[in-house]
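Before surveying the methods themselves, we first show a specimen of the format, giving the amino acid sequence and backbone structure tokens:

:::
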Amino acid sequence: MRRSVYLSFSTFFTICLLITTVLFAQTILGVENITEVSVNDINRNEMDTNPVLLRGHLTEKIGDQKYTFTDGTGKIIVYIKDEYFPPPRKITNEDDVEIAGEIFWNYKDSPEIDVKYFKIIVE
């Protein structure tokens, strides 16, 4: 009996967390109103703290909450908080993902993305 209650609570909590994350991203970033750009567009322009929407793949984890992202036009480093990943599914470099976040320039003068919204694209 306790196990089924625990599973129900954890399922409910996970669903609430995912809904809250999506609503937060849509409210704060206005995901519906953000123009999709390519990594190449970001690398060519010095857009700072502009919200962007990207679709592509995470190619590798290179640090704590730090990943390499590609959309076929180039690569960029993205920071994704662990809570944005849907449990218990593991993300592979074959999975199509959609991310939205803000651009910032690190000390090496290369752009990076602070991700505020993350979604696995299921087709």
User: Anything to note?
Assistant: The first strand starts at residue 51 and ends at 63. The mean pLDDT is 78.
